[in-house]
Write a structure and sequence with these properties.
single chain; alpha/beta; 2-enoyl-CoA Hydratase, Chain A, domain 1; two-stranded antiparallel sheet; 10 helices
Length: 286
Amino acid sequence: MTAWFKRQKRKVTTTEKKSVPDGLWEKCPKCEEILFKRELIKELMVCPHCLFHFRLDSGEYLRILFGDGKYEELNPHLRSADPLSFKAKKSYPDQLKAAVVKTGSADVIQTYVGAVGKRTVVLGVMDFSFIGGSMGSVVGEKISRAVDYAMQRHLPLIMICASGGARMQEGVYSLMQLAKISAKLARFSKSGGLYISILTDPTTGGVSASFGMQGDVILAEPGALIGFAGPRVIKQTIGEDLPEGFQRSEFLVEKGFVDRIVHRNEMKETLGKIIEFAHDGEVAVA
């Protein structure tokens, strides 16, 4: 109270602190710089100070790879069911409804056909914000149909992976998707198809153990967490400290699990070069 009376005596005026609108600024988790959200979006959600790659939703990846070009969504009608009548504090159907409202997407993955550079491609994009990017029956079915579409039309297949693993609410139905997708990709490879896998933060569990690591070319964004079990679980299991940067994309490139780390603003150009090289100068598919 004493400080307040001194202010009155000296005729010091005070003003209310102006609040900063929510969503206007973003703090970088790596370097802790405060970033203006509008400028960060222009940088494709990459911190200009330390190059930390923020997570993106499927719509943002579409803008990066397809730009203003035309593209078509494949099988948008597919929806997850509740085959096990899963019991929890919050019902599985309610979890799905909440995830749809949160993300604006029908499920974790959306698949499209569009042009990257001069080539028409089939693209699948996973969204980690939809129930942790967990893989259920719809994910398996959409990827399987995307592989069939690419195989029938001799198109390259690109998958942008972001997942915490299998969806426990679907139990064994979720686990079956691993074999289902792997079998489809084996047929696609045997037919001469090109499959490019892009690993983003995080790509873990059954997704990394199956189609995430089955690409003819495996790319990764900088600093992405990639692995089967998380580093904490592995450390507790083996009882030893893990190497610095363990399970990050830079570590996996060094060990040969990933072919190349690609900055987000170079992804479209890099994909175009890989596809052109694979097709060895053939006429672009219309």
